[in-house]
């Protein structure tokens, strides 16, 4: 059980680190969209690889044809959603987007907007979507919908390829499901009081009532915080404030777990724990060599016995 506790805490720490690293990488994305193009102009901008998608193997003069999504503030949209025409970026309902078909120069890590006809057609029944030239405009819509994009690709059969993307309300992720699973695990173990983190087996007798209350409270709150973080990410990622709320929930759960581990260590009766471990593995505790039951002779008695033996031997 001690190993399970350590593994759980390690998973929590790794999940928190991954979340914070993801936020840091997202903050490094470009903050400004390239200016609009006309018949004679070409606009270039730096871009991260997660923000673009190759349209099959289409290349023109060493350039790959890509679709780049921008939000209403002109930021390139990046994410961990399902792969689609937006390169893994998740498009949410109630948001405004601008998706541009353009070139990507991998050698220079550049996006190049062009007047070349790259976007052939967009198939969609939702009134929130419209397109003109190489630009797809998506207006805020309360309902989810999908759309199919036809992109020019000289290397493909028929000279074009199709990609299907979605504007969704939900953001399912394996990481979020794992976070929710850890939250349920913590609640169950806090109520049962079986794991080393929440068990009062080796807690000092006078501290047991207080520890039991603290452990139950910390376990349930940390579990609920993790479940709330997962639910916020899966069901409400389309709302702007959920990102901050999710980080707060993860941080709260992490602090509570560390706190109850510290309390457990402070309230533990180490002698009782050491004896239990010694009996479990069939070894005498290290302090046994210094424990006396009161039947051992004293130093004076030993010296007196030696003197008596010498006198007896001398008289003989």
Description of the molecule:
By secondary structure, the protein is an alpha+beta fold. It has helices at residues 2-27, 174-192, 208-235, 242-267, 270-281, 299-315; strands spanning 43-46, 54-60, 63-71, 91-92, 97-105, 110-113, 119-123, 129-132, 135-138, 145-152, 160-168.
Radius of gyration: 33 Å
Outline type? elongated
Unreliable stretches:
23-58, 79-86, 284-292
Secondary-structure-based class equals: alpha+beta
SSE topology string = HEEEEEEEEEEEHHHHH
Helix content: 40-55%
Task: Give a count of the beta strands, DSSP E runs of length 2 or more.
Answer: 11
Total count of helical runs of at least 4 residues: 6
How much of the sequence is in beta strands?
A: 15-25%
Quote the distance from N terminus to C terminus: 68 Å
Whole-number mean pLDDT: 76
Describe the largest sheet.
Answer: 7 strands, antiparallel
């Amino acid at each position: 059980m001690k190993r399970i506790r350590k593994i759980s805490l390690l998973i929590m720490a790794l999940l928190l680190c991954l979340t914070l690293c993801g936020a840091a990488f997202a903050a490094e994305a470009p903050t400004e969209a390239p200016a609009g193009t006309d018949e004679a102009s070409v606009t270039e901008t730096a871009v991260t690889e997660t923000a673009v998608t190759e349209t099959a193997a289409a290349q023109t003069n060493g350039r790959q044809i890509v679709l780049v999504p921008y939000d209403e503030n002109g930021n390139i949209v990046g994410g961990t959603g399902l792969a689609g025409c937006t390169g893994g970026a998740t498009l949410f309902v109630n948001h405004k987007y601008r998706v541009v078909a353009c070139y990507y120069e991998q050698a220079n890590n550049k996006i190049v907007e062009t007047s070349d006809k790259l976007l052939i057609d967009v198939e969609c029944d939702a009134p929130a979507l419209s397109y003109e030239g190489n630009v797809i405009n998506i207006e805020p819509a309360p309902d989810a919908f999908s759309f199919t994009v036809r992109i020019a690709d000289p290397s493909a059969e028929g000279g074009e390829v199709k990609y299907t993307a979605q504007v969704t309300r939900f953001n399912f992720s394996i990481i979020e499901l794992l976070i929710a699973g850890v939250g349920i695990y913590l609640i169950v173990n806090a109520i049962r009081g079986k794991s080393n983190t929440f068990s009062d087996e080796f807690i000092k007798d006078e501290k047991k009532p207080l520890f039991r209350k603290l452990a139950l409270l910390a376990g349930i709150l940390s579990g609920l915080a993790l479940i709330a973080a997962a639910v916020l990410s899966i069901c409400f990622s389309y709302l702007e404030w959920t990102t901050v709320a999710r980080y707060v929930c993860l941080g709260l759960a992490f602090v509570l777990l560390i706190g109850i581990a510290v309390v457990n260590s402070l309230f533990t009766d180490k002698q009782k724990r050491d004896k239990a471990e010694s009996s479990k593995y069939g070894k005498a505790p290290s302090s046994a060599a210094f424990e006396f039951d009161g039947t051992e002779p004293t130093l004076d008695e030993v010296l007196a016995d030696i003197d008596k033996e010498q006198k007896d031997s001398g008289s003989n």
